[in-house]
Amino acid sequence: MSEAQIAHRRLVQSLYKRSLKTAQDWYIDTNLFRRKAVELRMQFDAKSNLRHPREIAQAIQEAERQLTELRHPDPYIAVTAPGGTKFERNIHPNLDEPAVHH
Asked: pTM above 0.85?
């Protein structure tokens, strides 16, 4: 597999993963999200047989455009991730530095 094929594969995988994350922002219910995930997979599989570089580039550009349009205004953030409600709530003390008492 050539470097260009590897780069293209990673680009499509990234696009698919970002599409799933965007869908998860909109579909909180697991059953609804799963249906949307299957639908997304079918859309990606339908485009997997494209061979002409111009058609492939157009399909990727269209998917990126749709992803931008469907971006959620308040995306889901995992509670322990940066920006989440529990991020750094209970930070472990740094045992390498002595405690400073005032």
From this structure: no
